[in-house]
Amino acid sequence: xPRRKLLxxxxxxxxxxxxxxxxxxxxxxxxxxxxxxxxxxxxxxASTDVWGSVASAVAGDHAxxxxxxxxxxxxxxxxxxxxxxxxxxxxxxxxxxxxxxxDHWVDDVLEAQPGLTxxxxxxxxxxxxxxxxxxxxxxxxxxxxxxxxxxxxxxxATDDPANATAYRDNATAFGAEADAIAAAERxxxxxxxxxAVVATEPVAHYLLANAGVADRTPTSFASxxxxxxxxxxxxxxxxxxxxxxxxxxxxxxxxxxxxxxxNQIQDAARAAGVPIVTVTETLQDGLDYLAWQRKTVEDxxxxxxxxxxxxx
Length: 312
What we know:
Blueprint: H1 10-23, E1 42-48, H2 49-59, E2 63-69, H3 83-90, E3 94-97, H4 104-112, E4 118-120, H5 142-159, H6 164-191, E5 196-199, H7 205-211, E6 214-215, H8 219-226, H9 233-244, E7 250-254, H10 260-272, E8 276-279, H11 289-305
Parallel strand pairs: 1-2, 1-3, 3-4, 5-6, 5-7, 7-8
């Protein structure tokens, strides 16, 4: 099923608009039930469990973090916010989201509530592709995740100064682990110089770039997928030629957006003995952000270890 990026259904937006008008005067960003008994609980809302996990790593036990999208199978690009989602975002002290039109349904809410405090991960990305189309999948860029954690810590420290040191220490610890995983990515390229892949979707762009693994996916194939269109037969044929000719070491597949074309590509990889590396856009198997990224890096390293020699 094609991805529906930047889709803004009128019916959904109408419902959100009505909800947001009703919520404008009531949003408080904290748990008011604690007013008489103790400090307020700072409420953080994240668009997906990926950014919710980053926020939780920083917040620890001192703030409440809620992730709107937790499904391991849904495509965050095509998700449509409900009035309840809009209410959660509007009532948050801090909203953490991907940005870059990835979770556009958050943008829809923020447009109606411009005063909300946010952390936009895309805006903090230091590694946008140079001379190439922008890539919004910044959750695969560990430098961005580290910057997001630091920004969350500073905002929570402002909202909850009593726990400022804990927030900042947690962000520092998160950043250290992120740096270690990034180092493991770079080791992949050092061990496999000249390694190359094709990808059914440029989800893992930042991982591959940091690892020094070339992405040979035809540009027109990747562009069609990103626009929500089926790749042209000539582009599919080009992908299959790269696989069947053993010109790539592995095929990277986003298992949350399977289509007949991606299944055809996976079948070709299996027939040619080319390893398949699966990636996802939300957390898997109960893992937190760092464990998820570490597992993906290990999978890429292991698959490249068993890959056949690339024909140049």
